[in-house]
Model the fold of this input.
Amino acid sequence: MTSLSPSGGLPILSILIFAPLIAAAVALALRSDRAVRWWAFLSSAAIGLFSLLLLREFNPAVPDFQYVEHKVWIERLGIHYTLGIDGISLLLVLLTTLITPLCVLASWRYIKDRVKEFMVCLLVMETAMVGVFAALDFVLFFIFWEAMLIPMSVMIGVWGGPRKVYAAIKFFIYTMSGSILLLVAIIALRMQTGTFNIPGLMNRPYDPAFQLWIFGAFFISFAIKVPMFPFHTWLPAAHVEAPTAGSVILASVLLKMGTYGFLRFCLPITPYASVYFSEAILWLSVIAIIYGGLAALAQSDLKKIVAYSSVGHMGFATLGIFSLVQNGVTGGALVMINHGVSTGALFVAVGIIYERLHTRELGAAAGLGKQMPGFAGFLGLFCLSSLAFPGTNSFIGEFLVLGGAFAAATRIALWAVPGVVVAAAYNLRMLQRVAFGGTNNPDHSGVSPLDFREVATLACFAVFVLWIGLQPGPFVELMEASIQNILNIVAAAAPGATDAAVALQ
Amino acid sequence: MIQEFIMAFLPELVLLAGVLAVFVVTLYNDRVARARAVSLATAAALVVSCLITLRSEATLFDGAYRVDLFSQWLKLAFGVGYLAVILLGRRVDDIRPDIRPEFFLFLGISMTGFVFLASSIDAITLVVSLELSSFPLFLLVAMRREREGQRMQMESAIKFMMFGVAANGVMLFGLSYLYGLTSTTSIPLMVQRLQPVIDGPLALAGLGLTFAGLYYKLAVFPFHFWTPDVYQGASNETAGIIASMPKLGAVVILVRFAAAATPDNQLITEILTVLAVASMFYGNLVALVQRDLKRLLGFSTIAHAGYTLLGFVALDEAGFSASLYYMTGYLFMVLACFVVISRVSRDGENVAIEDLHGLHRRSPLLALTMVIGIFALAGIPPFVGFMGKFALLNAAFARGHTVLVILAVINTAIAAYYYLRVVHASFFGDRDATDQMPIALDGSTRALCIGLIAIVILLGVTPAPVIDAITTSLASVVAVP
Done:
């Protein structure tokens, strides 16, 4: 059973949510761009360090929500201000708070214009993102979920590339139209149960037909965010046009909200429907893996390569989650974190190239490794991580996913295997071109090597690539109990779940 | 006795005295600044007196006039709106120079009507206040300055008036039926006596015609025809007034009459559902192709009227309070947009969406006000538009109107597109035209912008006290059957 265990003392989650907002307000009052940059970096780094406190008292052995805070907010509408985290959201909150200072660093020189507004957007984003992962009231969750659209689309629309307005509006409309049905589902659940409390909504005997409808509404909204195969078209546009920090946030955190939604809402609230639709979703995941990989292989724009590779990676995440077995779901959750690290790192790397060459064409960057050997080393590491090379973070995640998927539905999982090969192909193609190039590389003699700030940014990512890759144990342990709990709910509410999984084979 | 009367009637007395003072000022020529100052003082005094009398309770004038929490917070909302509108009007440069002081006089008279409206519980008082509030507005539209080759304001004024008078006539006709059925003009009594006969054709005709008059004010489809034309033809300040105050006024009266019906009245809910859906789709779809900002807001008004009807479809306390909360929020969202329009406009001309390009460079505060106003209208949290829509959807869903709720959220998504065009122009746009001069803002405009932004955010983030107050105060209006 999922229950709430209250936290004593400091309301850490509230502080994590509102500190960035306060930092943003302070940033508004600063005058010089330099001061704004430093303030944004120092405040977000401080918040990142502070968030590590969560690890101190977090008990990974129990599946309960911890650090719970509760206040009645709007009594008449039944909306409460409830926060809390379990193992899954803990990692995502940490991912968010730790990646934000890196985003500030990555936009140090990239953003020249309206620096203050940019940093304010970034910090407001952090508030919304932490809020999404920490909210335990469905309306509160929805508010953060929607509120995040404004700073993100502003970030793309103001500081983006040549087609920024198209990308910003497409991003906004796509995600917003996805989430409107989520709102209807939230209200429908309230009418059934009388509460917006997320743990309170889980594990209830809803009518199967009702579950299918609710699942449908959930699915559209989360699948657009992930993005899953037929709903992915906003992603390349948004990624390509967004500034580096925007791409990093988009890839590392925003896409996770979709898969987080599957884990947090679809499985425990509509277990019957999740089992019912799992085969279809597994197929969609496989399509995403192969399609994303092939599309990435065909691109010549560095950012598009990384963007389409995201589609493939997130396909692995959903493949794992909807395999509905412990290994698969754990792997899926781990892929979420890993994708945040490696794809974030790749976007930073592409940003570094763009700052020097003012183009993202693969051909123009050919042979860059000769001038920037250190950079080529980092890029090599991240590319290997992206193709799930053993010893890097992604390997263990994808391995668990494939293992879980094979256990659940061998027939479908087989199709994911070529995806792994394709991932190796597009990553090595990119790495080969950028690091070594061909015989007639463009002249890069004027290109400056990495400076200290860039090395520091990339090194932070590299640490996590290797840490999770070499010792995934602690990360998996954090989530294990929570995931087991979710799967117990699925198994209990849908007794045929395991049978169905067997039948899929 | 007299002391109690004054305590209860203080806001009205303050307002009447203020309007009289403005009248005296207008007797002299060229006294715009003074008329404005007196109006400003009156509005401030009105707000203060509303706050003082917020908790007063009294029934005045032989039961025709009721002062209670419901009426007082409405007067407060009107008062704040009045204050905002005067600040928005600045020196009303777009009104014919010789009659500028009169702008403030008519505005004041119209406000008197709205304030009376909040307390009227007798059909006759109600009609008188309604006319008092709307006739000066007809004049305000016609008072716009003439330009080379443009006499749009006259067309608009005549359209506004013809429709308005016709709608008032229809409403009076409907009221006559209701009077005939119940032989009383007191609305609470009327509502009570209507209960047994509510399903009869006469009662339905009476209520339907009465509602029709109010739908005209609210701009519900198919009573909306005047809206975009009047917004476009009226000066920017006047359009701001017409877009905000009368809507809240109409919702107040609707609540008073809708209390007669219960959620079981199939026919009434069905009619309301159809009107709501038609308004939302019509308003949003037509707004998609607008280029003139005021016309765009005009069509979006029609859509918002549709959203508001969601609360009336529910026909219960939760629905009414959601509608009132939404309209109160709408008042401030739309005023925020109109502040920007009137400041961006060159020499009082109408503003096209393209004119907003580069606004963030010309005046960051105006761009921010516009963006927040627009996002609030689009229903994005954490602004009041989201909470209001949420409350409305909740109320409608609770009564089982699932399809209506889904259609409403689909409309929210459609609307996002044209709202984003405005955001795009004012915040993303980088086009450098020749006259991209920075817009200098005076202190009062800055204060107004910040105040409106604060209200739009605060009403959205801490709606609990407001919704509580509305719901509690509704108890005296909606007799629980």
Observations:
- Chain A has 23 helices and three strands.
- Strands of chain A lie at 4-6, 65-74, 79-85.
